[in-house]
Write a structure and sequence with these properties.
Two copies of one chain form a homodimer. The first copy, chain A, has 218 residues and is mainly alpha-helical. The first copy, chain A, has helices at residues 13-31, 37-44, 48-54, 58-70, 77-82, 89-104, 107-119, 123-147, 159-180, 190-217. Chain A folds into two domains: 13-69, Homeodomain-like (Arc Repressor Mutant, subunit A, Orthogonal Bundle); 73-217. The first copy, chain A, has ten helices and no strands. The interface between A and B is large, with 49 and 49 residues. Chain A binds a DNA duplex (30 and 30 nucleotides) through helix 3.
Chain lengths: 218, 218
DNA sequence: CGCATAGTTAATCGATTGATAAATTGCGGC
DNA sequence: GCCGCAATTTATCAATCGATTAACTATGCG
C-alpha cells in the first residue's frame, strides 16, 4: 500500500517550498482560489498533508501566492521615464507600455489579479491606486504640456483628465483579458499595436483636452 | 420541529421559478458559480431541496442563469446605427456606446461574464465574436470612409484596423471592470466621458490609419 | 367539509473538503 | 554501515458539499 517506489524524493525545505509556491501560483491562476489542496498536491507529485507542513493553512498559501505574484513586477524607473522631457511623449509612452506589457502580460498575473478582484479584499484596489499615482497622474501632467495647457501647478488635475489616461491603459490591458480570460486571439505584433494605439492617443487626446477645457471655462 | 409559523409562502410555480432565477443571478454574480445551493436557498428564504424541485441540478440552474443574463440585452438596431451615414460617425459612436453601456453595465452582467470567462467554456468567446462581427467590423468600415481610405470592398479589412476598434471598446469596458470587479470609483458623468473618449478616437484613429497604411505600402 | 394535488420541509446519504496525528522512509554525520 | 533527525506518507477526522427521500401542509374543487 506504499507509493510507487523511488517516487519519494527528499528535498531541502527551501527547494520544496519554492516548488509548492510555483505550483500553487500556476494552479490557482488556472482554477481559482477554490481549487482543492488535494488536486494541487497531485499536480506537484506530493501528498496533500505535506502542503500543511510548509503552510499552516490554505489561506496562508494563497497569501503567499499574492505576494509572489505582485511583488517585484513593478519597475520604479517607469516613473522617471514618463517625465523625461528630453524625449517625445509618444516615444515615452510606447516604451512604457512595451515594458509594462512585458512585465504584466502573463497567464498567472492576469488571472490571479482577476480572481483576486472578484473575491473582494482590497489587493486590486491597492495596486491600482499605485498605478494611478505613479503612472496616470504624471502622464496627465505631461499631456498638459503637450496640449499647450496650463501646468498642473497652476490648474489642478481634473478627474476627467485622469480618465483619459485610464482609457489608454484600459484599452491596452483589455488585450490581456481577451487573451488569458476570454481565450481569444490577440495581435502577434504587440509592439506594433502599442505604437498605433499610443499614436492615436497622442493625436487625439490633446485635442480633446483643449476641447474639454474650452467648453469647461465658458 | 416545524418551521416558524406563517413564514411558509405558497407561490405559483411561475412566481417561484422566477424568484429562484433572479436570486441565482444575483447570488452567482456575487460569489461565483462555486456558491453553495444551501446559501442560495437561505438568501431566497426557502429550503435547499426546493431548488431541486425546479432545477434538476445546480448545473442546470447555472445554464438557466447564463441564458437569462445574455439573452435580450443585444439591441439589433445598433448594427443599423453604425452605418447610418446621414449622421457624423462621432455622433453615431457616442450614441452606440451610450446605449451599449446602459444595456451592459450592471453588476450581474459584468461579473457573471467574467466568472464565465475564467471558468472556460466558450460562452464569452461566442458573445465577443458577435460583437466583433456586428460592431467592430462596421465601425472599421466607416473609419475607412472618414479617413479617406479605400473602402473595404477594394482593400480587405486588416487585423490591425480591427484592433483599433477593440481598443476603443476595451477602454470603455474597462470602466465596468473597474467598478464591479475591482470595486473602484468611476466617473459619475459616464455620458460625458464617452463623448471625450469617442472624440479622441475620431481625432486620433483616422490619422493613425493613414499613418499605418502609408508605412505599410512602402 | 373532505379529498386530491402540489408546494414545502426535515432528515439524511455518499462524496469531498481542509486539516491533523501518527507511522514511515530517505539522507547526512559519525 | 548505521543512527537519528526531519522530510514525507498513510490513515483519518469533522465539516460541508450536491442531491435524494419521504413526510408535512397549504390551497382549490366538489
Amino acid at each position: 500500500m506504499k507509493a510507487e517506489t523511488g517516487k519519494r524524493r527528499r528535498l531541502t525545505p527551501e527547494q520544496r517550498e519554492r516548488q509548492i509556491v510555483d505550483g500553487a501560483i500556476r494552479f490557482f491562476a488556472e482554477v481559482g482560489f477554490e481549487g482543492q489542496t488535494r488536486e494541487l498536491a497531485k499536480r506537484l507529485g506530493i501528498t496533500q498533508p505535506l502542503l500543511y507542513r510548509y503552510f499552516p493553512s490554505k489561506e496562508c498559501l494563497i497569501e503567499r501566492v499574492y505576494n509572489e505574484v505582485y511583488i517585484k513586477r513593478w519597475q520604479p524607473h517607469w516613473e522617471a521615464l514618463i517625465i523625461d522631457r528630453s524625449r517625445p511623449l509618444e516615444e515615452r509612452l510606447v516604451t512604457l507600455y512595451r515594458e509594462y506589457t512585458r512585465a504584466i502580460f502573463n497567464y498567472e498575473w492576469v488571472r490571479i489579479f482577476m480572481f483576486s478582484g472578484l473575491k473582494g479584499g482590497n489587493i486590486t484596489e491597492r495596486y491600482l491606486s499605485i498605478v494611478q499615482d505613479k503612472l496616470f497622474v504624471p502622464v496627465c501632467t505631461e499631456l498638459r504640456e503637450v496640449a499647450g495647457l496650463p501646468s498642473t501647478d497652476e490648474v489642478p488635475l481634473e478627474p476627467e483628465e485622469l480618465e483619459l489616461a485610464w482609457n489608454l491603459h484600459g484599452g491596452i490591458y483589455y488585450l490581456a483579458i481577451r487573451k488569458w480570460i476570454y481565450n481569444l486571439p490577440i495581435p502577434e505584433d504587440l509592439d506594433g499595436h502599442i505604437e498605433r494605439v499610443v499614436h492615436s492617443f497622442i493625436e487625439g487626446t490633446p485635442v480633446t483636452l483643449r476641447w474639454h477645457f474650452a467648453r469647461h471655462d465658458v
